[in-house]
Design goal:
Elements: E1 7-13, H1 17-28, E2 33-36, E3 52-53, H2 65-81, E4 86-94, H3 102-114, E5 126-129, E6 145-154, H4 156-169, E7 173-175, E8 178-186, E9 189-196, E10 201-212, H5 218-224, E11 235-246, E12 254-258, E13 264-270, E14 274-278, E15 282-283, H6 296-307, E16 321-330, E17 344-349, E18 355-360, H7 366-380, H8 406-416, H9 422-432, H10 436-440, E19 452-454, E20 457-458, H11 459-468, H12 474-481, H13 490-504
Parallel strand pairs: 1-2, 1-10, 2-7, 4-12, 10-18
Antiparallel strand pairs: 3-6, 4-6, 5-6, 8-9, 9-10, 11-14, 11-15, 11-16, 12-13, 13-14, 17-18, 19-20
Helix pairs in contact: 1-4, 1-7, 8-9
Length: 505
């Protein structure tokens, strides 16, 4: 297999949102970029989020006004630049009189509305009567009043994929299922030994600079390569788990539930037929390469939270899917995990072959992180000619239409492809946006779309993910780039696996 050039300006290790965002930023400015990821893009933390683009209302409790301000500015920007995979979501906060007082919540929401001088794209917060209207119907009768406010939903894995796709189209080499086995400074450059996990062979590349964007593995990567110092920043690894159950209530709004332990939990409409519930916070140590899974305690916690709030009760038998991820939080000495900062820190080691390590961060502020990383790359490599920042104004692939005209765009798609079932057309809009034309152009019927795998998945879409979006396995397709695995039988999933095996052969 050809890997193109073996000499790069920057090698990025890690294919989560930070690594993909930095790759896009640098490649778009003219740098020669190589990104390696030991699994699939967004394989770990970046596909295991609560899938929100938000300012972080609860961060106001910790007086982290700066982070909230930055996140809300990014929320507005991302909604405009990726309207296909990001859309507004209304949040309902039932008031529990035994927890935070009403005046404190109202004050927090006022600040949330006005910290960026009001985001006119989204409705303002307001007090609501839960004894009337749709918001109170699913809740226990003890909840009489509450609040509503706006944030945004995001398809987190697709956000990563689109950043990587745009990076590749700008010249970056994106190598998934490629593990960094060893890296060392040699002759003023980095010599990096890589292992192709699929074809089981090793090869080397060189780079003038390395960006360590390994997420939970950021310090581990330094440790195993002998790059740790006495003052190396620590990482607090915290597991967050979610459950998915059959749809619990009508409407497209989310509930934010206050917990007795001071945490908050979300229930979010998910993939039309389901409700997503999360998240937890559970400290983890040990081997991070072992698949992270939900614990019985976490399941009990999430179910108990729902059952203390909603008329409809759930238990472990109602769960149709779970996912867990590890958050790499900056070790700042906070006494408990929920109060550790969600901001990021970039640590630059300026030697003849510079090293930049990325700590922390959140999906909402990834673009801002990438911009700051590019500035540090320029500082460390002054002879590298980098262009101006473009990510604040250039749409992500498929997002080149106005958020305010999304329905108009959707109507146009359904008119252009009248033979396409409405549910599939709408899913294509919110997954691919204008890029859907790449695999639909020239087709005139469902019979033209190749093999029918079930749940609305056809051969042309699978082929697009394999050829354009770096997908390699059934899980890459069914649980990251789409969530159609939730709606498929085992027989249908097996058909996808057989198709992919034949494709690779």
């Amino acid at each position: 297999m050809s890997h193109g050039s073996l000499h790069y300006d920057v090698c990025i290790i890690g294919g989560g949102i930070n690594g993909a965002g930095i790759a896009r930023d640098l490649a778009g400015r003219g740098a020669r970029v190589f990104l390696c990821e030991k699994g699939d893009l967004a394989n770990a933390t970046s596909s295991s989020s609560t899938k929100l683009i938000h300012g972080g209302l609860r961060y106001l409790e910790y007086y982290d006004f700066k982070l909230v301000y930055k996140a809300l500015k990014e929320r507005k920007l991302l909604l405009e630049l990726a309207p296909h995979i990001i859309w507004p979501l209304r949040f309902v906060l039932p008031h529990n009189k035994n927890l935070r007082p009403k005046w404190l919540i109202r004050l927090g929401l006022f600040l949330y509305d006005h910290v960026t001088l009001r985001d006119k794209l989204l409705p303002a917060s307001k007090s609501i009567n839960l004894k009337k209207g749709e918001f109170g119907k699913p809740l226990l009768s003890k909840f009489k009043s509450g609040f509503s406010y706006s944030d945004c939903w995001v398809d987190d894995a697709r956000l990563v994929v689109l950043n990587a796709l745009d990076a590749a189209e700008k010249g970056a080499n994106i190598s998934t299922y490629t593990r960094c086995k060893f890296m060392e400074r040699r002759g003023g450059r980095w010599l990096i030994t890589l292992h192709d996990e699929e074809e089981d062979y090793e090869y080397c590349i060189t780079a003038r600079m390395v960006v360590n964007a390994a997420g939970p593995w950021v310090k581990h990567l330094l440790d195993v390569n002998g790059l740790t110092h006495e003052d190396t920043l620590g990482v607090r690894t915290v597991k967050g788990s979610h459950i998915v159950v059959p749809r619990m209530y009508e409407g497209e709004h989310c509930y934010i539930i206050q917990q007795l332990d001071g945490r908050i939990m979300f229930t979010i409409p998910y993939e039309n037929n389901f409700t997503l519930i999360g998240t937890t916070e559970e400290h983890v140590d040990g081997n991070l390469d072992k698949k992270t899974t939900i614990s019985a305690n976490e399941i009990d916690y999430l179910c108990a939270s729902v059952n203390a709030t909603f008329e409809k009760k759930i238990g472990p038998d109602d769960i149709v899917w779970t996912y867990s991820g590890v958050r790499p939080l900056i070790e700042d000495g906070a006494k408990d995990d929920k109060s550790v900062t969600r901001d990021f820190k970039l640590v630059l080691e300026e030697k003849e072959a510079p090293l930049l390590s990325v700590y922390g961060g959140k999906i909402t502020t990834y673009r801002r992180l990438a911009t700051k990383a590019a500035h540090l790359v320029k500082k460390a490599l002054p002879s590298l000619e980098l262009g101006d920042n473009f990510t604040h104004k250039e749409h992500l692939p498929g997002g080149d239409f106005s958020h305010l005209k999304k329905q108009e765009f959707t109507n146009g798609i359904m008119k252009a492809y009248q033979w396409l079932p409405e549910d599939i057309a709408k899913r294509y809009v919110r997954s691919y946006g204008t890029r859907m034309h790449i695999f639909l152009e020239g087709l005139t019927s469902l019979g033209d779309m190749g093999q029918d795998f079930g749940a609305g998945l056809y051969g042309v879409e699978v082929d697009y993910m394999l050829t354009h979006e770096f997908a390699r396995t059934a899980d890459d397709i069914l649980y990251r780039r789409s969530k159609l695995g939730l709606k498929m039988t085992q027989e249908e999933i097996d058909r996808v696996k057989h198709f992919i095996r034949a494709y690779h052969f």
